[in-house]
Amino acid sequence: MIIILYGGLGIGTGRCGVSPLEGVAENAGGGWSEGKSFPFIWLFPLQINLYNRRMNINNNANNVKKELLVRIAKLQLDGELDSRKINKIPTEMRPAGTAPIGCCIYHDRELLRMRLLARMGISVENYNDLNDLDDYAREALSREKPTWPMITVLHEACNGCVKQNFMVTNACQGCFARPCMVNCPKKAIHIVHHAHIDADKCIHCGLCEQNCPYHAIIKITVPCEAACPVGAISKGEDGHEVIDFHKCIYCGKCMRECPFGAMMDKSQLVDVIKHIMNGRRVSVMYAPSIASQFKCSAGQLERGFEQLGFTTVYEVAAGADITADREAAEFTERMKRGDKLMTTSCCSAYVRAVHIHVPDLDPCVSETRSPMHYAAEIAKKDDSSCVTVFVGPCLAKRREGFDDDLVDYVITAEELGAFFEAKGIAVSKLEPVVKTEVPSASGRNFARTGGVAEAVKCRLTDPSILKLDVINGLDKEGMKKLKYYGEINAGRVEAKEEDGNLVEVMSCEGGCVAGPCVIQKVNLANVQLDKYVKEGK
């Protein structure tokens, strides 16, 4: 008999030191202590990646993240963030009698303590359990600017997932055709009643998985490593994941896909609320994708920003109009001088990917600045002493903000949603602001794949010079296509007729509406974005 154990079934026994494997074995085998022996297949469901799907944003890790952000914001707005009340949050969220997620409720609470650091913008690598949370709150409130690095890894939460491999389940029928064995290029499969894979010979090509008619062979991935398109994540000596920041493009895919919430961004919401409460003039610039995250009109969203305490509100779509105008002019000039191609420059994760990993394509990246930069330029021109806050869907923009002197802070859709909830603001019920200036529909459409390229196209005086190509998402295949265009630019590969001379690249499949820090499912976000675009001029 073979028992397949799915991770999580043994968790919740309430006994520290007893593994989930032992807990399930007691249930499945009638008592581990009785010495019964069975062949086991140990399997974590979230490590199975049969269809290369992204994890649904509706999950417990995101729910906990939101609750922590809301609780912190409420305490800060009440002037009590650095009081003893913050120390009670882990116990309030995991009270006595709650079924533990990990080995025990005390470990759950300790992880919540560490997660609170990241939500206050502090690296968990600096955690000292001798310090109280109110000590860290005072540290967060006293800092003058966000600290580096902007991603922090909670090793205590990291599962130390097994190395990527292929595994034969008990669905294998040991069939007569044996396509897995016949098609294996390294003869790594032999069959005795059912298939067995020789790990020493396996090259992880996946042909066995593709050829099994029963889908009995599955690919087990390390989710964060599999999601990273540039190989910036690997296991350290202790088996936990480590980020190589020299390779990282800050796309946020590792954070989005980690089922244990071990990859965490460091929030800047505490800093923003602090400036608002201190009476500073704080200008907010919201990306087109943010308008897709809330079921309200642009006027209602802007009224919501006013009620949060922001002094002035800017649509980044206005900056997108400037970007599109300048990219159209730049593209025309490049084609006149004989350049082979030009790529867009709005997605900062993509731009960083080229700079680091595809230097042959670097000369082709548009020299035009991003919509965020131009929106910040407008805000600083209106009020040079204001604090500028960009609201977007991702980590890459936060990384770009570190390098842009005009952008003081970057918060995400998640953090904005938490801020609204902490203040008790329902944006869909607000009286909308009467807008006197409205960006173009094409500028507002930057938030989805193809939107940037279309905005450039409609501004060309001679659209016939354009051959458009779109790279919809920087996964492994997307990076291969980037390198292909790099080869074309370097002259090592001849361009084909169907290859583009204007290439739009979005790090996230579907565009910014599918960023790693959004709060709305992509299909629903696109519906809301359609409404927002139609309101554009």
UniProtKB/TrEMBL annotation:
What the entry lists under Gene3D superfamilies is as follows: 3.30.70.20, 3.40.50.1780, Fe-only Hydrogenase (Larger Subunit), Chain L, domain 3
- Species of origin reads Treponema bryantii
Quote the NCBIfam families the UniProt record gives: FeFe_hydrog_B1
Pfam family example for this protein?
Fer4
**Is this entry keyworded Electron transport?**
yes
Which PANTHER family does this UniProt record tie to the protein? DIMETHYLSULFOXIDE REDUCTASE CHAIN B, OXIDOREDUCTASE
Q: Which InterPro entries match?
A: 4Fe4S_Fe-S-bd (IPR017896), 4Fe4S_Fe_S_CS (IPR017900), Fe_hydrogenase (IPR009016), Fe_hydrogenase_lsu_C (IPR004108), Mono_FeFe_hydrog (IPR027631), RnfB_subfamily (IPR050294)
4Fe-4S ferredoxin-type domain spans which residues? 193-223, 239-268
The UniProt keywords, alphabetically, are: 4Fe-4S, Electron transport, Iron, Iron-sulfur, Metal-binding, Transport
What is a GO molecular function of this protein?
4 iron, 4 sulfur cluster binding
**What is this protein's record name?**
[FeFe] hydrogenase, group B1/B3
